[in-house]
Specification:
Layout: H1 4-13, E1 20-24, E2 37-38, E3 48-49, E4 53-56, E5 68-74, E6 88-92, E7 104-107, E8 111-114, E9 117-120, E10 130-131, E11 142-144, H2 152-160, E12 165-169, E13 173-179, E14 183-184, E15 195-196, H3 198-209, E16 213-220, H4 224-232, E17 239-243, H5 254-260, E18 264-268, E19 272-273, E20 279-283, E21 286-291, H6 295-313, E22 323-326, E23 338-348, E24 351-356, H7 365-369, E25 373-377, E26 389-394, H8 395-398
Parallel strand pairs: 5-6, 13-16, 13-17, 14-15, 17-21, 19-23
Antiparallel strand pairs: 1-12, 2-11, 3-10, 4-6, 4-7, 5-9, 8-9, 18-20, 20-21, 22-26, 23-24, 23-25, 25-26
The protein binds ligand LQZAQKY5 and molybdate ion.
Length: 402
C-alpha cells in the first residue's frame, strides 16, 4: 500500500494553480492574491505633520521669548499652505502637508498665540513631529505577495497602495457526490436503517472554509446508471470529490462506474487509518479524489489530502501543521498504516497533554467533532508510554481559512 506522504505528493504533482479573476476590494476578503501587488503611490505622499500645532524652522525656536508671525494654515485636504520664511510659522493640523521652508512642528500645547503671532515655550528639534514622504511605504514597494490570503488588514493595505481591484485566484469548483442507498439528505425524514449524508454537509463546509466553491451533486444510489448519471454532472469542475462506495463490497460500485466513465486511476488504497480506500485519478479531464464513506475517514482524509489540494489549486503553500506534545496515556504499537487518532488536550501537571479517545472506530463522528487534535502514529511505531512526545495536528488551526 502507498504511504501517506507519497500519496499526497502524487496528488499535488498532478495539480496546478487555477486561473485568476479581478475583484473589487469590497469582494476580495478571504481570497488569494494571484500576483504580487506593487504600491502605486507613496504613503504619506509628501512630508506631513504628525500633530496639531505650528510648522516652524526648528533653528529659530531656540530663542525662548521670540515671537513668530502666523502667515497661514495647512490642513489635510486643504489648499497648498504658504511657505514658512524667517520669523514665520504656519498653523498646521495632523496629517496636513508640511509647508516649504519648515522642518519641525511645535505642538499647540507648547504654543502661546496672540492674534496673528505666536511664541513657543520649548525649542523644537529638526524633524520633530514630521512624517517624511514614504514613511509607511514608497511607490514601487511590493507590499503583498502572490499566494497571500487577503484578510481585512491586507485589503486595507492594498487600498492604501492605490488599488481598487485585485487579481485573485478563482475559487476552485469542487463537485461533491455522496454515494449509498442508505443515505438521505440532511434534514429529510430518515427511514429505519437510513443514514444522514452528513459527509455532504461537512465536506461542502470544508471546501468553502479552504477557499473553494462546493457544488452539491447530491446522493447517487448504489446503482450503475445513477452513478454514471451523477458523475457526468462533474464535467467542468476543478475537482470531483466523492464519498463512499470506495471499498471492496458488492455494492461498492463507484470504481467500476468511474472505470466506465474512462477514469485514469492513479492509485487506490493507501497505508492510512482511517482512510485506507482512498482513490485518486482523473475522469472526464477532472481530477478525482474518492474519499471513504465512514464519516471520520472522510473528514480526516479531507484534512490530510483535500486541504492541500485546495491550497495547491489556489497557489498557496501546502503542508499539514504538526505540533508535538506528551501523551496522557500509553499507546500500543502501530501496524503498517499511518494512523490519525482523535484526541483531546488536557492540562497535565507540567503543561498540555494529549488524551486519545479510547475508541477510534471510523464511524464515530462525535469523537471527531469534540476532538482538539489528531495524534499521528507513523507506520510500525513501537508502543508509546504516557509522557512520550508525539506529533499532532491542531484541528482548530487546520479547520480555519487557510
Ligand atoms: N472487507 C473489507 N471491508 C472493508 C474494508 C476492507 O479493506 N475490506 N475497508 C474498510 C474501510 S477502512 C473503510 S473506510 C470502509 C469504506 O467503505 P466505503 O468507502 O465503501 O464506504 P461505504 O461502504 O459506502 O460506507 C461506509 C460507512 O459510511 C457511511 N456513509 C457513507 N456515506 C456517507 C455519507 N455521505 N454521510 C454519512 N455517512 C456515510 C455508510 O452508511 C457506512 O456506514 O470500508 C470498510 N470495509
Ligand atoms: O480507513 Mo477506514 O477509514 O479505516 O475505516
Amino acid at each position: 500500500m502507498l504511504a501517506v506522504a507519497e500519496a499526497r505528493a502524487r496528488i499535488l504533482e498532478a495539480l496546478n494553480p487555477g486561473p485568476g479573476e479581478w475583484l473589487p476590494l469590497s469582494e476580495a476578503l478571504d481570497r488569494v492574491l494571484a500576483a504580487d501587488l506593487v504600491a502605486r503611490r507613496s504613503q504619506p505622499p509628501c512630508a506631513v505633520s504628525a500633530m496639531d500645532g505650528y510648522a516652524v524652522r526648528a533653528g529659530e525656536t531656540q530663542a525662548p521669548e521670540r515671537w513668530f508671525g502666523v502667515v497661514g494654515e495647512s490642513r489635510a485636504g486643504g489648499p497648498p499652505p504658504p511657505p514658512v520664511g524667517a520669523g514665520q510659522a504656519v498653523r498646521i493640523f495632523t496629517g496636513a502637508p508640511l509647508p516649504e521652508g519648515a522642518d519641525a512642528i511645535a505642538i499647540q500645547e507648547n504654543a502661546r498665540r496672540e492674534g496673528s503671532r505666536v511664541r513657543f515655550l520649548r525649542a523644537c528639534t529638526a524633524g520633530e513631529f514630521v512624517r517624511p514622504a514614504g514613511l509607511d511605504f514608497a511607490e514601487g514597494w511590493t507590499g503583498l505577495a502572490a499566494g497571500m490570503l487577503l484578510g481585512p488588514l491586507e485589503l486595507g493595505l492594498a487600498g492604501a497602495m492605490g488599488h481598487g481591484w485585485l487579481p485573485v485566484r478563482r475559487r476552485p469548483r469542487v463537485a461533491i457526490l455522496a454515494t449509498g442507498d442508505e443515505l438521505v439528505r440532511p434534514g429529510e425524514p430518515v427511514p429505519p436503517a437510513g443514514i444522514v449524508s452528513s459527509n455532504s454537509t461537512a465536506l461542502a463546509a470544508l471546501v468553502r472554509r479552504w477557499g473553494g466553491e462546493p457544488v452539491d451533486l447530491g446522493i447517487a444510489a448504489d446503482h450503475h446508471d445513477a452513478l454514471a448519471d451523477a458523475l457526468s454532472q462533474a464535467r467542468g469542475a476543478d475537482l470531483l470529490l466523492t464519498t463512499g462506495g470506495a471499498s471492496v463490497g458488492e455494492y461498492d460500485l463507484l470504481r467500476p462506474a468511474l472505470g466506465e466513465a474512462g477514469m485514469e486511476l492513479d492509485f487506490w488504497k493507501i497505508a492510512m487509518r482511517p482512510g485506507k480506500p482512498l482513490i485518486f485519478g482523473k475522469v472526464m479531464g477532472v481530477p478525482l479524489l474518492g474519499l471513504p464513506g465512514n464519516p471520520v475517514s472522510a473528514a480526516v482524509c479531507a484534512v490530510v489530502f483535500l486541504r492541500p489540494v485546495l491550497q495547491q489549486l489556489l497557489g498557496r503553500p501546502t503542508g499539514l501543521p504538526l505540533e508535538s506534545a506528551p501523551l496522557a496515556a500509553p499507546l500500543q504499537a502501530n501496524d503498517e498504516r499511518e494512523e490519525y487518532m482523535r484526541a483531546t488536550i488536557e492540562q497535565g501537571p507540567s503543561g498540555p497533554v494529549l488524551r486519545p479517545a479510547s475508541r477510534q472506530d471510523s464511524s464515530m463522528f462525535a469523537t471527531l467533532a469534540r476532538a482538539d487534535a489528531l495524534v499521528v502514529r507513523p507506520p510500525h511505531a513501537p508502543p508509546a508510554a504516557a509522557g512520550e512526545l508525539v506529533p499532532w495536528v491542531p484541528l482548530a488551526r487546520v479547520l480555519r481559512a487557510s
